[in-house]
Amino acid sequence: MLGTTKVFEDIRVPDIDDRKYRMLTLANGLDVLLVSDAETDRSSAAMDVNVGYLYDPDDAPGLAHFLEHLLFLGTEKYPRENEYSQFLSDVGGGYSNAFTAGENTNYYFEVSSNCLEGALDRFSQFFTCPLFDESCTDRELNAVHSEHTKNLQEDDWRIQQLEQDLSKEGHVYRKFGTGNLDTLKNIPESKGLKTREMCIEFYQTYYSSNIMKLCILGKESLDQLQMWAESMFSGIVNKNIIPRKFHDHPLGANELGKLIRVKPVKDTQMLTLSFPWPDTTNIYKKSPNKYICHLIGHESEGSILSLLKHQGLASDLSCFPSHGASGFDFFKVQVFLSDKGLEQWESVVLVIFQYIQMLKETDALDWVYEENSIMSTLAFKYQEKSDVSSYCSGLAASMHDYDKADVLCGAYLMDDFDATLIKSMIDLLRADSCRIMLVAPSAIKSEEPKVALWYGTEYQVEPFPTSLVDSLSTLVCNADLTIPQVNPFIPHKFYIEPSESIVHEHPRIIKDTPTTRLWHLLDTKYKVPRTSVTLFIKSPVAYASPRFAVLTHLYCDLVTDALNQQSYLAEMADLYFGLDVTVEGIILSIGGYSDKLGVFMATVVQAMTSLVVIPERFKFVKEELSRHYTNFESENPDQHASYFVTWMLQEKLNRSYIPVDIVNFYPTLLNPVHIEAFVHGTFDKAASLDLLAMVEDTLGKSSSLRPVPVYARYNTVRTHMLPFQSSLTYRRLLPNAENLNNAVEVYIQFGESNRDNVAKALLLNQIISEPCFDILRTKEQLGYVAWCGPRFATGVCGFLVHVQSEKHPVFVEGRILSFLENARGIIATLSDDEFQRHCTTLCSKIMQKHKYLMASTEYYWEKISNGSYDFTRREQNAETVMTLTQADMLQFYDSFVAINSSSRSKLSVQIWSSQGIKSAENVITSDLKNICSSDEKSGEDMMDVDTVLTDDGSVAEMRNQWLLGRSGYPMADIRTFYSF
Ligand SMILES: [Zn+2]
Questions:
Q1: Which of 174, 205, 576, 909 suits 704 as a labelling partner, its CA being 20 to 30 A distant?
Q2: Which pLDDT tens digit goes with each residue over 614-642?
Q3: H-helix or E-strand containing 276?
Q4: What is the tens place of the pLDDT at every residue in 519-557?
């Protein structure tokens, strides 16, 4: 039984990849990809099973997904339900996750690299001897139901399911994949079916080694990994399953030529064209999709989007193949409409088809293919390491799709230009082979719209209007539409060994003047030809008042809008660009291949200083921004809970939206300023200084750049300190009345973010986060979203527990407080060994290497932007954690977390849903009886001492009375960083 029948090592790998790869086929038919990375500090494994919700029995929609949840909860060898997650978290400092798609279920985990064997052994048991424990089954159904309830008000889920619902009658694509209590329990039970038994049957039928793909990444040798794979995974039974093929497309004559009008939850205005499309998996080397999407989705002069924007009809367009299942795909063109575009949506459709008509009348162009192919090849050649769990999870899935040699590069291949194939696929984009979906709050015209079964989405279906049919039947090319120009940002120079002899470990200051401080770090670790440049342009004007805040946002949005055609070309050449607003100013970031980065930077800064406000674009950008503000109202309650905790704690944060006029504002935003910049990558000192000089020249072109007062250079935004013994609850009603969920975030403040407090907050989290999930989510089933974590804001640290639940928020808060009360016991009962293990596990987590250049850039940028310049923070945190004792942690708990402590400060935000409260009122009493044993307290008892706040005005007033924590300050004399 044991052993390997086939070994394959001829795998194409990126130039800069120093890992070793080997592929095996075990005797039971299981394909395994082994990745040996001697340097890694994190290990991972992933299993992708070629079965998903499209295989659900009609009697139990959601069964494959439910099985995915259950598999984690106990096996014959490791029967305890939280054994796996506890091992990963406590011993391995890691985590696991899984997802269920139409034809795949993907399981993966990540741990510290010295714990792979133990984790792998626990993981392998899921596929040989899961218990499907009866008591877990019932409870976990609630988690799945809560997951569905969480999705109920999310447009992505609603629209995706509606598209599936409106497939051909009887088509498998119509299935509902998530499941809820009705589909998985109530309805099956009424037919005499048992969920657990159906689950076991599903598992026994489909979980077969021949349709599974396993990927293991560890620091061990390939031979060692192979031995583990053989000994742990050979026991999976081979049932010789033949995966299904779905040759019948879900869009047939009855579905095509139809317009679906949909009412979204959010204020979104979107038009989507869907075409039936062949499954292109087996022609991945030719990649015709990339060519076609590149042209239709282009945003430069002559493109569909460029013309639609010019006409004031649209803000954004994307074009992509959307995978259906083995045998069928969709081709989609999606446009975000302006108000005018919504009114004239037929014109938008017409422009899209005019462009397609032009493509039909032109030969496929090899230089366009070539540009895409260059970028694809580079992306693979210089592919950096990424998070190991997403890497393994992705590879396990890729193993189903690509030849063995191409398992790493399959998604990047583009080396076979087939003009005939491309043309034949473009010919499939026909008006009579298209379905249109129009999503907007006002889209529905009917008095009695239909209501979709699973999500309650309101919609209406009608044939294409005759006016549209007529104009589409007499298509001619539009002279405003053309093939894009040659992209000037495609890089041609690549990696060269840096010439500078002195290489620093951390960033150094290479220029420091009253207007500019430039940090520089020449990369020698990652060896990729990339650089990232971040400029923090601090301006006292940015958030001087709510009005100025809105002006600053509008300015950045207008610049981004004006740059769209250039930034799109840059993006095609893997140069990214971002302009973000903060309370202190704006942050401009540009990064990507170093070769053309300077050229692009010059383009951007030029646009920033010469913005011309075109009235139509202004109207449009304002429309978008105000939509952004109103759309927050429709977010799930957990987002609201987090937001309002931040709002209570952070100074100067303002939520009001005031319409304004932008004329003459931005020159004051850009001068006087203080620029704090960071250049990281292959740019050497001289190149970095040149770049900054160019920025300063451009920004200060009319009058030279002037410095802001010193206080405005260093003043990072501060955090409110809750008074000692404060026990506050802030209640808000969720604006979206349809949402069934409530949310609670409980925040405990520890005070100043000094080394000691930070280390203790991190260790507290390490010790209680797994129990938090186990108790609040798995055992008490409060809701799908349940987590805790440390909270660090400028100068101040704390801890929070966050739950989104259909249960009453007062009850939920009671359960959170009860969990926190019991947390003392969790700390107190740890053995010496367990406590030490938590410390070492946490240290290995803190000291995790940065896998790629950008992760390292982000780490340093955080320290630069918050003004601490504390580049060895990780090392210090790890060092402090190792000095902590159990007694220290208990004392810390007693001072800050214990409910009767005189130095405890607690703030909670409860988001009440009006719908949710009605249904929750009924269950609260029985829930209390069920869950709270006699020694535990209900929510009402626990919150006796609380001050309950409900009025925004008085909350804001109270908040403004609180002291502010320390602002960011350098950890060392600034001159010690000088290198010039
Ligand atoms: Zn799930």
A1: 576
A2: 887 888 888 888 888 788 888 888 889 98
A3: strand 270-277
A4: 999 998 888 999 999 999 999 888 888 788 888 988 999
Distance 185 CA to ligand 1 centre (A): 16
Assess contact for 670 and 555: CB atoms under 8 A.
Answer: no
Q: Kindly tell me if the per-residue pLDDT of 935 is higher than 80.
A: no
**In terms of residue numbers, what domain contains 572?**
517-613+662-714
Mean pLDDT value of segment 453-468: 96
Q: Output the six-digit token pair for 820.
A: 């926190």
Number of structural domains (the chain) is: 3
Question: 68 catalytic, yes or no?
Answer: yes
The mean of the pLDDT values for the chain is 91
The predicted structure's pLDDT at residue 661: 61
In sign, the C-alpha dihedral spanning 771, 776, 781, 786 is negative
Which secondary structure element, helix H or strand E, spans residue 258, and what is its range?
Answer: strand 258-262
The pLDDT, as a whole number, for residue 569 is 95
Among the ranges given (78-82, 657-661, 810-814, 952-956), the one the predictor scored with the smallest mean pLDDT: 657-661
- Please tell me the predicted confidence (pLDDT) of residue 8: 95
Centre of ligand 1 from the C-alpha of residue 237, in Å: 25
Between CA 291 and CA 490 the distance in angstroms is: 16
CA distance 112 to 217: 11
Residue 499 lies in a domain: no
The Cα-based distances of 861 to 857, 865, 874 in angstroms read 6, 6, 14
Q: Is the dihedral of CA 846, 848, 849, 854 positive or negative?
A: negative
- Identified catalytic residue from 9, 39, 68, 384: 68
Domain boundary pick from 176, 211, 233: 233
- Ligand 1 geometric centre to CA of 65 (Å): 6
Give the C-alpha separation, 441 to 265, whole Å: 8
- Residue-level pLDDT at 968: 80
Q: Ligand 1: distance of its center to the CA of 252 in Å? A: 31
Q: Is residue 406 part of a domain?
A: no
Q: Does residue 187 share a domain with residue 97? A: yes
Instruction: Report cis status (omega within 30 of 0) of the bond before 672.
Output: yes
Q: Determine the Cα–Cα distance for residues 967 and 698; give it in Å rounded to an integer.
A: 31
Instruction: Tell me the CATH number at 834.
Output: 3.30.830.10
Strand order through the sheet with 31-36: 4-8, 20-26, 31-36, 212-218, 42-49, 105-112, 95-100
Same domain, 747 and 836: yes
Residues 760 and 868 in one domain: yes
Can you give the pLDDT at residue 65? 97
- Assess whether 672 and 813 both reside in one domain: no
Q: Which residues fall within 8 angstroms of residue 332, CB to CB, at 6 or more apart?
A: 272, 273, 274, 275, 319, 320, 321, 322
Measured in Å, residue 727 CA sits from the centre of ligand 1 at 35
| Residues 12 and 88 placed together within one structural domain of the fold | yes
**Tokens representing 953?**
């005005």
Taking only the tens place, the pLDDT of each residue in 667-687 is: 888 888 999 999 999 999 999
816 contacts 897 by C-beta, under 8 angstroms:
no
CB-based contact 630:267 (threshold 8 Å): yes
Last residue of a domain, which of 233, 249, 278? 233
CA distances to 490, 791, 841, 862 from 847, rounded to whole Å, are 36, 19, 10, 16
Same-domain status, 956 and 888: yes
Does a structural domain hold residue 76?
yes
Looking at the structure, tell me whether residues 777 and 673 fall in a common domain. Answer: no
Q: From the CA of 62, how far away is ligand 1's center (Å)? A: 10
Q: How confident is the model at residue 926 (pLDDT cuts 50, 70, 90)?
A: very low
Q: Are 17 and 244 in contact (CB under 8 A)?
A: no
- The CA 178 to ligand 1 mean position distance, Å, reads 7
Instruction: Give the closest residue to 897 by CA, choosing from 884, 907, 887, 906.
Output: 906
Q: From the CA of 113, how far away is ligand 1's center (Å)?
A: 27
pLDDT (0 to 100) of residue 187: 94
Same domain, 683 and 785: no
Q: Does 298 reside within a domain?
A: no
